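Consider this record:
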Amino acid sequence: QVQLVESGGGLVQPGGSLKLSCAASGVIFRDFVMVWNRQVPGKEYESVAQIGWSDDATTYADSVKGRFTISRDNSKSTVFLQMNSLRPEDTAVYYCKITNGATTYWGQGTQVTVSS
């Protein structure tokens, strides 16, 4: 059974930082591309950051470039999202998603709230 468990969300003031983690089990982690998505209620999912087979194969949404960093630790089957200089508009539920092109799995989501 495949499981993705996110953690690290919470309430932070504007300008602050959070680090999200997504631990995977039940899959051969290194075979998957990892994606962090976010969703504000009533809006479409936004793909925030993606990481491929190695740490240098990363892409970011324009809205988070220079502030967010995605990384992975294949030995721990975990993907991370370091979020710095957070803004109120970053408030959303953040989901990790893994895909190998044929199969996709989603985590349950973790709430990030940026507010003073």
